[in-house]
Amino acid sequence: MLHGVNPARSENGATPAVPENDMLLDSLKAQHRQLEKIVGVLNQDFARGDAAAISKDMQAFKTLLMGHLELEDTKLYPELRKAGAGNAQMLSTVDRFSTSMTKIGESLRAFLAKVEAKGFDVKDIGAEWKGVALALTARVTAEEGSLYGLFEKHCAGK
Q: Do residues 59 and 45 touch, judged by C-beta distance below 8 A?
């Protein structure tokens, strides 16, 4: 199912191929749901003060997040820039999101390095984690509310 709608079937009953860009957006949204889920798990880990669980779950978070960022960098932004050629407003929006995510990514990598260091103090990084979780949640909302709308309008179905 694509965007909650069953794809049309051809006369011979075969399901037509889903354009790659449609699958990309679905994949990115699914990754957002997975990131939101692991953020919830990590929030529980921090609430319990469970350093072992934080380390384990943070590794899963890191793996998922880095894969998501790579997909955005190699597929989403290039497609949006290509579609926005000649549209200064669209390119400005895409560049703003890309630059913002680069900064967020750098902050996340620095935070993850602290967690990966042996002997981190849960209380010391707990407050920082709350900021990370809030920033990530805000970013997901912004992407899905603005950036993905541009993608659907200019890139989907191709």
A: no
